Sequence to fold (712 residues):
Amino acid sequence: MTDQQRPGELPPDLLRGLTNPRMSRRSMLKLGGLAALGLPLAACGIPGSTGSSKLGLAAARQQIEDFWAKQKKHGHFNFANWPLYIDVVKGGKHPSLDLFTKETGISVTYDEVIQQDDTYYGKIAPVLAAGQGTGYDVMVITNGIYLDDLIERDYLIPLDQARMSNFYTYASDLVKDPSFDRGNVYTMAWQSGVTGIGYSPKLVGKKITSWNDLLDPKLSGKLGMFGDNEDLPNSALCAIGVNPETSTPADWKKAADWLTKQRPLVRKYYQQDYVAPLSKGDLWASQAWSGDIFQANANGAELEFVVPKEGAPIWTDNMCIPAHAQNPLDAMIYMDWVYQPRVAAMIADWVNYMTPVPAAQQVFLHEAATAKTKADKTYYTGLAHSPLIFPPKSEYTRLHRYRVLSTAEQKVWNDLFEPIYQS
Amino acid sequence: MSARSLRGKLAPYTLILPGWLWLVIFFVVPVITMLSVSTMTGNDLNGFSQTFHFSTYVDAWNSFHVQIIRSLAYGLIATAICILIGYPVAYWIAFRGGSYKSTLLFLLLLPFFVSFVIRTQSWEFMLDDHGMVLGLLRTLHLVSSNASILQTPVAVVGGLVYNFLPFMVLPIYVALERIDPVLLEASADLYAHKATAFRKIVLPLSSPGVFAGVLLTFVPVASDYVNATILGGTNTTMIGNVIQTLYFTNLDYPTAAALSFILMGVLLIGVFAYARALGTDDVLEMAAA
Fold:
């Protein structure tokens, strides 16, 4: 599927994920079996994911409707999410999930199995290519290369637009009809966030305002950056003063040079594991996700989060339903249910990322107005006015989406940036 | 030939059949499959097909020889340190352990009751900039206030030594344990100095144990990726990390497979060269015994 096709229309072959597993797809194991039976190796291959089935647009819509008309509520679904990405109380209970079960009778198995988009994609892609289910009905994937791939390869089930009333009532403009999924055919936002700089003012000894402050030799061995092919390159593009969304391969080269220049100072290219060393002081400054710094401070760290003046990447993590999900209707009910302001507030209160539901602000203000203690009042007023949860409109001009890459561009991009964080 | 004696002849082969089947299903088939994958071309979107594209090997070497050489270097250093630490430990347990031998061996294996990843993670806590190791060194003014061990090659090699040390100690212990004390008594009767006795008797007799220990440590150490992930930093990526990323993140199966075979080839050459250098052609057999 090309980008020209995507906006607002249903791609003709999106329905393959809705149908039964295609037996023509052989897994690596089956391939191994064939090789062992003495078939000439030249005849073997690993099949790809793009099929040739072409359906008319109307027929595709009809098939989606038929698919959803057939679905029954099973009273249960499985949710794959990132660590520390939902409300949690002592004993590991998640109040919002418990409330969901109470109100709808649908129980939830909640697993924090996603550490990084690339590794999770690498884990599920071969399974989905083999025509098997992932075991999950809802998963949370960041916009970018891997979500594009999931959509392009028909690994996602198109959503039931008739069951998205809360979404269309309460979702913010940022996450409605986003550039990476026109018409919200496949996804509904979970949370959004900004990739900026987290640092300890005490240890750095000065205010950090720019990406270029991360070239300071004083940070040698105390500087963390992200080891991924989205946040790291897109931030570097911001650092050299280029809007990533419209950047050219020549810009990428310059960004890679910027990162190479910085590399001797970097302690490690981190995954999810940068928060602990940053809180402990092993890192003085690091590339960071907005909500993590807020949470670390709530746990006693003294860190500051800054959106550098050159701008920063903004990303959205999206709920979507993987192909061959066993309980799609239960999943669909949940995905729309979380868009009620009272639920969105429960989650935002804990995760401190940008909520997709602006009306959650009223919920916090109401909590503040009716708070019994002064501490509670200050807390909820703080949440309601937090620029990290409800960024002011003026901030958005500095925030940029990741560069969308075609398959050919991906290769150039990866060849430039992977050696920086992977050697 | 009577049916009875035929059955008698076949019995050993029948008995070993499960072993052969295991080897074929879980080793030969995957290896052949991976060998075939390594010369395929394509991508996961359009699929991979067999094109006998052998230059993948050349490209893989050119792109990742730094990590291969680094892994071999880490492997050699860690193995050497394991011998230096492990041999005296094994010697002491074998000759001085007395009635506590089994207790001592159990203590040696005790860390194995904790998961590999958790054990490595605990090194992260020990070695971080405010951990007990650097904290102590700093109090003693032995290191500068900004020094760090974590995320350096020292931390990675340290973690590797720690995790694989028992694999070195155990085979050496077994070899030493089998040495008949009578031989040492005889050497003493013939006025051999203790050092001479060690050099002429103990060391040669225990060399198959050392060889087995090297096999059991060097090979897994050189292909390890957990220690580099947890304890490593910017210039400590090992070839195992690269293969893992290529395989599970980039879905570049041919390059990952080619790298695995390059690594396997280099390790096999190294091991056989070592066997030759020991001068005993049957050292493999002795080590296995």
Summary: The mean pLDDT of chain B is 90. The interface with chain A takes residues 24, 28-30, 32-33, 36-37, 40, 42-50, 52, 66-67, 128-130, 146, 148, 150-151, 232-235, 237, 241-242, 245, 247-251, 253 of chain B (CB under 8 Å). Strands of chain B lie at 40-43, 47-50. Chain B is about 75% helix and 5% strand.
